[in-house]
Design brief:
This protein is an alpha+beta fold. 25% of the residues lie in helices and 27% in strands. It contains six helices and seven strands, in the order βββββαααααββα. The radius of gyration is 20 Å and the shape is elongated. The two termini are 34 Å apart. The model has no long low-confidence stretch (mean pLDDT 85).
Amino acid sequence: MPNFPPGVGKTAIIGISNPQPLDLTCLVELYLGSSKVAAFGEVTVIAGTRIELEALVVMPSVEGTYPVSIQTSVKKLTGFADVLIKAGLPRPSPCGDMGDVDGDGLVTNADAYLIGQYVIGSKPLTHDQLRRADVYGLGFVDATSITDAMHIGQYLAGVIPPDVTGGRDTLKVCIMTSFSCHYCGAIFTTHDALWAHNLAVHHI
């Protein structure tokens, strides 16, 4: 762990990668402990690239141990509508109600759109909607990516990569046999059990 004298200034370098196929605009803030020491405003990272941000940070005047953390919040995913336009016609869910986020009985572009709105903070989703949106089986809907929305688009268009579902025309969550809690690591044999755990233990 690096040690710095109180009051000394150091340059912090923050690397942000965007592996998604869409340009990402987000707010970036740097914290030492609970204190915000740098804010970068809206930062855009082009799809498939990485950027580095620099900021002069003055060490706290009180000696101690200060965890370093970076907080980001997604503001915009440029091209998200274009991705949905390429998606195919509505289809039934391949297992139960997975992918049917809006509860209309079908997996459609509207479900992918709802996930996108949740990701950028424009629309909240209920616990059950989050469960149905978790088509990639991660146990959460990641607010820094559109993995689940993209996967719905792949399912509707019939272009799911073979390495995702073994060549089967289905959603990844439908063929998984083990699920890990993103928050505590607990293992479950069914997706429903994982999300019941999320609600009871993590209040999600």
